[in-house]
Amino acid sequence: MKVPLTGAVAPYVTDMSDEPEFRRDPVCGRWAVVAPERSRRPMTLDGAEPRHRKNGERKPCPFCPGQEHDTPREVLAYREPGTPADGPGWRLRVVPNRFPAVRPDVDEEACSVGGMVFVTTPGLGRAEVMIECPEHLTDPTKLTDGRFADVFRAYRDRLLTLAEDPRLAYAAVFKNVGAEAGASLGHTHSQLVATPVVPDAVEAELAGGKEFYTRTRRCVFCDLAARELAAGKRLIARSANFLAVAAYAPRFAYEFWVLPLAHAARYETLSDAAALELAVLMKRVLTALDRAQAEPAYNWFLHAAPLRSAELPHFHWHLEVLPRTARPAGLEWGFGCYITTVAPEQAAWELRAAL
Amino acid sequence: MKVPLTGAVAPYVTDMSDEPEFRRDPVCGRWAVVAPERSRRPMTLDGAEPRHRKNGERKPCPFCPGQEHDTPREVLAYREPGTPADGPGWRLRVVPNRFPAVRPDVDEEACSVGGMVFVTTPGLGRAEVMIECPEHLTDPTKLTDGRFADVFRAYRDRLLTLAEDPRLAYAAVFKNVGAEAGASLGHTHSQLVATPVVPDAVEAELAGGKEFYTRTRRCVFCDLAARELAAGKRLIARSANFLAVAAYAPRFAYEFWVLPLAHAARYETLSDAAALELAVLMKRVLTALDRAQAEPAYNWFLHAAPLRSAELPHFHWHLEVLPRTARPAGLEWGFGCYITTVAPEQAAWELRAAL
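Above: the input entities. Below: the structure tokens describing the complete assembly.
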């Protein structure tokens, strides 16, 4: 056995390139991505203020019109008729992430390594950035209803396109608002990371939903929606087709979920009209959250059926909003156990009051 | 169905007391603790500096000698012979958490609620704080070797005592250093949270270890240790009986694990001599981390066999150290997928160089 002496510095030799790779935790099986290339991404939001958002940064940023040369070529844009790609004239623009965590061009066969303990596989996938408006807005609630609806339409449009690549199983769609929530640039944007595997958190929900369905022949989300409507105490707001509720077992105080009332596993079925209705509801609740919690940093993410999935009876797409209202500590990170000091019923009450 | 009008504020009525409760996520089954009482805890580390530690705070703090009246009565203390409990003269002191997430005195039968969707159970358990030294040190690497060893001895002593309560299945032991890692007080301390269930993250490791053992008749951690010693590239430091290695599939850059070389599932078997050896190794590697990453905030936590467990062939106790070197964002929070930009091999090289 080659044991470096304690304190002696062995030269750093790696058999890895700079290419991203997935690695499986040898014990619990959790996947991680090692992506050295991403360390070169610009960080303009250093976040001196930990809980709340920070809006000051240089302008124009790489996401502003006229800076299209700063981003890779667009893969989707909603733009004025007649304006050429990769120039101004857009109102929403999706581009590959310039500092991707995963890449579509890795040599999948050449470097797959299987093993009993150390399992790695190339970081195949697509990482995209959705620039949600041309104006340098850092707060999504400042978008008009139409622009906000564009975001939800564009999620759908990208999922439909990404599904055409048979190597990809899932597209994770998420948004980081504020440095504390992991945003590195302020200009309001979402991200998509499509991977060859369904992420663990979605697998856990699919499995939980299936188990509930097997026992009851009902969708757990449909059941949840009906119960929350009946009980009312965790209800924040609703529209004709959507519901916003405080999460029953939250990770963070003021965590809330938004889901369609009618069963739908596939987000791709969302109509333009429904996208607008969803946008109006989300904007209202996020504005209430900003009022109630002094503009906290937050993430939202979309949990939907995997790409090319059949309509599943046991799963129901939804958005989860996680405000960074506390700092997870050892109990959360080490044991997966989340403590909240604000009961969801209290949070819902405060958010209703702030609507 | 009772549906509040959107915008109308229903009065906040709750059928809950202030008592902590466990709640199960209706979909994926993750447990959370709702503990309103904890919102009253003092927070002296507001953490204007997000990544690094902040040491300034009022003194004397509630953990300093002479302030013993500020904490509940000690359940363990290493103190000078003849000094009375709950006064000065101690070098390490364990007290119930004054703002507990779980409590030993909840009425377990009275308020257990089962259901298909909303499952809650009283927040039974014990939450304790281990004050690691009388001096107002905020940095554990400033402890003498002997004091540092006291911490690892006291973990063992508390696990042995907590195991006497048959209602408790597991005691989560962890430490938060720096506001960004969730510490609310700077005076160096650890925490113990003992619960009637084994936490999800430990269950996942127990299950992963068992699966590996079933296939190979080997402990995955023993295998990992042997392979890391042989390969050397993720090795940070070792002593006669312990190993510190960069995690193969890290959640955060510079994450490292410390484990005994000889198989041991139960932390309770740790000898005083081994506690000292472990302390010396941990101090060295943490000091290197401080040098390499400018004193980052971090957590460490102990993963060990459940209380009153038999010696398990498939599990192996270990410490995991998670430096807060990046801010988890939507991909991490929403999908359980962690991205690191520093390869573990690079991290190990840097930490070896900083030893």
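Note for the figure: Chain B has two domains: 21-35+51-195, 200-354.
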